[in-house]
Amino acid sequence: MTLHQTHKVGLFLLFTLFPTLTLAQETPSLSSGDTAWMLTSTALVLFMTIPGLSLFYAGMVRSKNVLSVLMQCFAITSLVTLLWMLYLYSLSFTNGGALNPVIGGLEKVFLKGLNKDVLSGTIPETVFMTFQMTFAIITPALIVGAFAERMKFSALLIFMTLWVTFVYGPVCHWVWGGGWLANYGVLDFAGGTVVHINAGMAGLVAALVLGRRKGFPHVAMPPHNLTLTVVGASMLWVGWFGFNAGSALKADGIAGMAMAVTQIATATAALSWMFSEWIIHGKPSVLGIASGAVAGLVAITPASGSAGPVGALIIGTAAGIVCFFAATKLKRAVGYDDSLDVFGVHAVGGIIGAILTGVCASTALGGTGFGAGNDTMLAQVFAQFIGVIATLSYTTILSFIFLKLIDLLIGLRVDEEQETQGLDMALHDERGYII
Fold first, then answer.
1. At what angle do helices 66-83 and 153-163 cross, to 10 degrees?
2. In whole angstroms, how far apart are CA 44 and each of 118, 251, 303, 343, 404?
3. DSSP state at residue 151
4. Is the pLDDT of residue 24 over 60?
5. CATH number for the 34-428 domain, one of 3.20.20.70, 1.10.260.40, 3.40.50.300, 1.10.3430.10?
6. Cβ(204)–Cβ(342) under 8 Å?
7. Residue 9 predicted with pLDDT over 80
8. What is the mean pLDDT of residues 92-113?
9. DSSP annotation string for 307-322
10. How many helices (H) does the chain have, and how many strands (E)?
11. Average pLDDT, the chain
12. How do the domains of the chain map onto residue ranges?
């Protein structure tokens, strides 16, 4: 064979194999490192609800209601797990065809087609599904704090079933499942809109529909065990690294930066709330610094994949100060009984974080840049504003309808005697403490 013929054979083999080689490069493959990180993140986010959020809330209610809050969080965890497996994962994360801007499809109901070999990017889809399940679990659990100490347990189960199906599922799809907010370029890396604004506004609606607790605001209702609250807040802080850094879905530089800005914003917000309270009321409180930390965690959530350290400092400072005034001054001025400040911390903190994401994503502030279709800070802030308004409006309307419907059918609120006795004994025939 001549040299010229050898070159021809070589070129033929090269072009014959090239499509195969290209296809092999494009086919996603399992990354054990990414998978290990996502397994860890999934456990951390579940840890945020039980025991983290459960203890955070349980310590803030009166002793006669401590078990009721723990029961609600535990039951919601179990309920949403089943709903996510049955149909919610499919509605949130599959293509809905003509309805895709609004909701996903049904091809993965009962987790059809998910087996150990199916991948989502570089991780098993079962891991991605379970990671997203933990977000769906904590979101309705957050709402519990707004109506603590007065809702029937049966009403809670019905409301949460309706709410995660018709509110959480669609909003999740809008942002993370390829829906209309994602196409609009809204940035929400880990759930400022999907989780916190969504839950916080639903909590305010629930507090208003149910009405104030007996004796509020004239009867003092201090937290019965701040030790539990601080332990719960500490668990939330640690678990939030899975929440934010895990949302990168990889063990990479984005996850590393998300972890860094989460820590910076949380610490900044804790101190901002503490100093605000110290100046206004003369003394810093343990509940205040813990609440400030949670406000910082909430506010950095949407920006954790796009902001840099300077952005985290800005967001944390704003969250600590504004959420302090929302949870104290605004609440007293308006007079609503949001038992554990779900609106003041989660809705307000989520709004601050969502809007400031449009600012802090700027490369001039060390961010990673704006979302698709938004080439200026003003355009990105406007997109964020649209996402906030859409979520606030949607969750307000549907939450109100569901609560009113349930109230009409079975009643939302325990009677006055049960409320006086406490939900632990009235609804569960148990006591949190032996007297």
1. 30
2. 23, 15, 19, 24, 35
3. B
4. no
5. 1.10.3430.10
6. yes
7. no
8. 96
9. --HHHHHHHHHHHHHH
10. 20, 2
11. 94
12. 34-428
